[in-house]
Amino acid sequence: MKNIKLLAVKEKILLVWKIPSFPILFLINTIFGMSMSFFVPFSSLFGIDEVGMSNVSFGIFMTVLALGGVLISSYIAKRSDSKTSRKTLLLLTSFTGILGYALFAFLREYIPLMLTAFVLLGTTAAAVPQLWAYARDTLKAAEIPSQETPFIMNIFRMFFALSWTIGPALGSWLLIMVGFRGLFLFVAGGYLLAFLTIFFFLKDLQKQTDALKEPMKVNKYLIKPHIVANLAAALLLATATSIHMLNVPQFVTKVLNGTEMDVGIIFSVPPIFEVPFMIALGILATKMDNGLLVKIGFFIAFTYFLLFSFVTETWQIYPLQILSAAQVSITAGIAISYFQDFIPEAQGTATTLYMNATQIGQTVGYLLFGFISEFINYGNLVLIYSAFAGVGFLLLFLFGKEKITLKLNKAEGQRL
User: Fold this and answer.
1) For residue 110, which of 43, 45, 164, 395 sits 20 to 30 Å off, Cα-Cα?
2) Both 31 and 172 in a single domain?
3) Number of domains composing the chain
4) Is the pTM of the predicted complex or chain greater than 0.90?
């Protein structure tokens, strides 16, 4: 029986590698993932320590970067679904990555850096969504059975996660050896490699889009308490996560007296565990209530953040990162599907509401990090964003499920 299952898995993996262009897509996905992992973990060290921004000005800088990503990515998404080919947009977003990070290597003035972040890196933020959309179009063009799509796309996401297992550690080594100038030039080189790979090895595909079946009627959903509670919880967790991401490098280097290499290793640990966790959760999600899994994920996130406040040595963070991997695997893996179940008749609207909540939360987190860390130390800041995650869990626990008992009782009364 085990041999049969292993053969089935082997056949599926071989199927993935036989899909036209997919080996190339895996390569590009890995390049994009590693490029992000070279910048994100060290962004606060760059802004505050290298450039000399105040905490407040750095928070504003990251907010502008996030807004550029949201606004420009949204525009590019509309273009990709109507006029411009995804290959062209992938070339554009890779090219802006080359220019943006090359400029980051040399610019140290606040306004030029902010403009570069908003325009160029904001455009580059659309690269990963467009690549994943291209991958879905490739599956449809190859006439891959729809039931195989989730498995294949999960493998695709795993390559992105795996790139983070070595990216931050390699980035920290580069940072120590050649500084931020060399690090950013290396990232620009990664986007150049992606640009050349896209140009020579990918082809334009006919767009594979599904017609919209329902209009975007948001108000009728936002009056439902359980939907508002879930959106608020998602926003609070995204806020806590973005503050944590910016706080960790400062906490490690300024409070624990750690090094950039410690920061790199800390960010490299979770992806190692995220892959097996994603596989296990994929199995559990077919046997357990997704709502319960999401609540567990939020509670793990709260516990993870809270335990950070007890850390006194850098090495103590390493085992905690297993909890980080667990909560990310749940909240990033099944949370969207869980939220879509609340609005089954308008899943596009459900997805948009959820993604908007998380994007707003991330942006709020960037601002709050800058303003709050200006007045309290990085260790105490952990307690504040732990509270955000805790409130998010309580919202899910108390209000995150639709109350239908009253409706059933009324229906029974009418029948009588």
Assistant:
1) 164
2) yes
3) 2
4) no
